[in-house]
Amino acid sequence: MEIFLPILGLALTAAILAVFLKQSKMPVLAVLVSVTAGAVILMQLLPRLAQALEIFTLLAEKASLNQVYLGIILKIIAITYIGEFTAQVCRDAGQAAMATKIDLTAKVMIIILAVPVIAAILDGVTQILP
Known about the structure:
By secondary structure, the chain is mainly α. The chain contains four helices and no strands.
């Protein structure tokens, strides 16, 4: 919780500043403020993400989950967040068409990465069924 409120404060300040800059006919600066604030927020979250990664790894070891599958799941999560962040930056810059293409690319990459996990699940199900 101690990181949440400062991040919200930074985000609101950056949003207000970006709106002001956009209305002042400085849209490039508005986008730069948004991107910079987003990067700072992401940097603040990285230590928390590292903690979550450690917890996922410990849980996977306890459950005797194949580390390959954990890696795939974590890559899928990363693609989701990075794709969404990038698409939102494009939308903020007025590039909705590019944002849509980024969303599509992220979804296709997720499908490609998920194939081994889906295959393992289907293999497990077929072994259980008579």
